[in-house]
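Fig. S4 source data, part A: sequence.
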Amino acid sequence: MARRDAFTGLRDPNPIIEDEEDQKQGSKMVQQQPLDLIPTADLRKKRSRKWEKEHRLETATYRGIPRQVVELITKDAQSLSVPRDEIFRAFLEFGARLYRDGEIKLLAYPKAQRMTLYSEGDKGNTILPAQKPTNHKWLADAFPVPEKKAGGTQKKKSKKDQEATPQWEIRATFRIPTLLKEEVRSIAREHTLPVGEVVCFFVMEGSQAFHNGSLVLQPSPKTIGKTLFLE
């Protein structure tokens, strides 16, 4: 009885020649490159900024509008379920229309000038600290400058500190039509007034008219899309 080969089942029944085996091994090596086995992510499409570019001129930032006025605008917008910018626009347009029709007037008052270290009599000479008169000490007593603490992180302003912030430092940003923005700017330039003050004056006129019923705002549903299934 012939002896049985233990490796008969492991041998390839279809042997190939050496050249074919080298080509086959080469193709396997190419297919099994590590970088080829890593899935590549799809290229992310760049977000279109067309809408932002087209509406950039409609954005307006004004100084001098008190926080109470901004909060009132936000509250009125929430009560009507409309964007805050639309309420601001309605109030501003109402005030501007009253001004055009002559129903309201802008009365500009003189404003105190800034101080300067270079008066006309000094002929441009710089006043050094050692040359300051002794009677100027009352400035330091009346307006003490707090000492700055070394190191430490800047803390967030509390509500009390925010209320103490000067009104001219407060900024408010809204989106309104370009023509309305230019009209208000032209009116402010005509009277040599800050644009923010004119805007605040017109908005307050519109807000007062809205709350006493003279200005009626009727929001309507805005169509966002379409549907195949009506409720």
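Fig. S4 source data, part B ends here. Residues 55-107+167-211 form a domain with the Arc Repressor Mutant fold (CATH 1.10.1220).
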